[in-house]
Amino acid sequence: MGSADVPDIVIGRLPIYLRALNFLLEEGKEITASQELADKLGISSAQIRKDLSHFGEFGKQGTGYEIRYLREQLRKILKVDREWDVALVGAGDLGHAIAHYGNFDRNGFHVVAVFDHNPRKIGAKMGRFRILDSESIPTVIQDMGIQIAIIAVPAESAQQVADTLVEAGIRAILNYAPITLNVPPGVQVQYIDPVVYLQRMTYYL
């Protein structure tokens, strides 16, 4: 089955399964069952089995899943069994936090270049990074072969930044700007807007 045949909502749950498997390994467990994962994640065991069946058979009836093996298979499916270089555009407060977020490095995503268009920031140090001029995005992205970028700029600048990144060869964007981006087919975009999630929750309060 090709990746295009798997619903995106299923792909979205795989990292959650991967995180749960990592926790189980840290607890010293070697075998798990779909019901144990279901109890941890609040997702039905039938849904977990159905999601995994898109990619093959990973467990045995009555014995469950070998955690280390299933984790490695999910890492391969998600292509996180390798290291990824990441470009960050935006060196404000949010960009600073993203650049120093250790969980990216621990999971194989390494911020290797930070860009900003503010003349007062260009050339300044931000932790281990020297902030680069946004004008150099095409050259740096192509020279370093970077495929993933994070946008942490104001909404009014985000589309222009996205256009520049895509033209430079970026194929996946994590967007923190509160705006929906227009990108060509084949470019993946994920959005992180805390206000949207807060508004979603207040409905239930």
Describe what this molecule looks like in 3D.
The protein has two domains: 3-77, Winged helix-like DNA-binding domain superfamily/Winged helix DNA-binding domain (Arc Repressor Mutant, subunit A), CATH 1.10.10.10; 84-194, Rossmann fold, CATH 3.40.50.720. The mean pLDDT is 93. Strand 6 and strand 7 (129-130) form a beta hairpin. The chain has a six-stranded parallel sheet, with helices on both faces. It is of the alpha/beta class. Helix 1 packs antiparallel against helix 4, helix 2 (34-41) packs across helix 3 (45-53) and helix 7 crosses helix 8. It has nine helices and eleven strands.
Look up the CATH topology of the largest domain.
Answer: Rossmann fold
Question: What's the count of strands?
Answer: 11
Give the number of helices: 9
- The appropriate CATH architecture of the largest domain is 3-Layer(aba) Sandwich
Average pLDDT, rounded to a whole number, is 93
Looking across the biggest beta sheet, what order are the strands in? 8-5-4-9-10-11
Estimate what percentage of residues fall within beta strands.
15-25%
* Proportion in helices: 40-55%
Global shape:
elongated
CATH superfamily of the largest domain: NAD(P)-binding Rossmann-like Domain
Number of discrete domains: 2
Regarding CATH, which class of the largest domain?
Alpha Beta
End-to-end Cα distance, whole Å, is 42 Å
Could you spell the SSE succession in H and E letters?
Answer: HEHHEEHEHHEEEEHEHEEH
Specify the structural class: alpha/beta
**Which runs of at least 5 residues are low in confidence (pLDDT < 50)?**
none
Oligomer: single chain
Rg computed from alpha carbons, rounded to a whole number of angstroms? 20 Å
State the major sheet.
Answer: 6 strands, parallel
